[in-house]
Amino acid sequence: MEVVYTGLLRNATRTGGEEVRLPRGSTALDLLHYLATKYGQSFERQLWDKKGGLQSTVRGFVDELGRLNQAVARRCARLTLMVAGQAWTQDVVRDEE
């Protein structure tokens, strides 16, 4: 997958992006842990808060991405959900308004 860095994460990685290959079935959290291991403490400080959760800025980005995905899904006839590397596809059922 292609990973693009902006802002503070771009500073921490000293690159604008890279291609990352993870095992099939890897999660977004697996990706974050992989990148934190690769780039060290400067990357980790931008990603995790003191309690080990995502920084509020990162969480906000993830939440906004979720809203974008929902908006795209409302315009589709079929949806595919990937869970543990397995695809589940279903026709979209619309509520009558």
Provide a quick synopsis of the model:
By secondary structure, the protein is of the alpha+beta class. It has 4 helices and 4 strands; from the N terminus they run E-H-E-H-H-H-E-E. The strands form 2 sheets. The chain has a two-stranded antiparallel sheet.
Unreliable sequence segments:
none
Looking across the biggest beta sheet, what order are the strands in?
A: 1-2
Distance between the ends: 39 Å
Mean pLDDT: 83
What's the helix-strand series? EHEHHHEE
Shape: elongated
Helix content: 40-55%
Strand content: 15-25%
Number of helical regions? 4
**How many β-strands, per DSSP?**
4
Indicate the structural class: alpha+beta
Gyration radius, in Å: 16 Å
Major β-sheet annotation = 2 strands, antiparallel
Account of the 3D structure:
The strands form two sheets. The chain has a two-stranded antiparallel ribbon. Strands 3-4 form a two-stranded antiparallel sheet. It has helices at 7-13, 28-39, 41-47, 56-73, and strands at 2-4, 17-19, 78-83, 86-91. Strand 3 (78-83) and strand 4 form a beta hairpin. With 97 residues, it is an alpha+beta fold. The chain is elongated, with a radius of gyration of 16 Å. The protein contains four helices and four strands. The longest helix is centred in the middle third of the chain and has 18 residues, at 56-73.
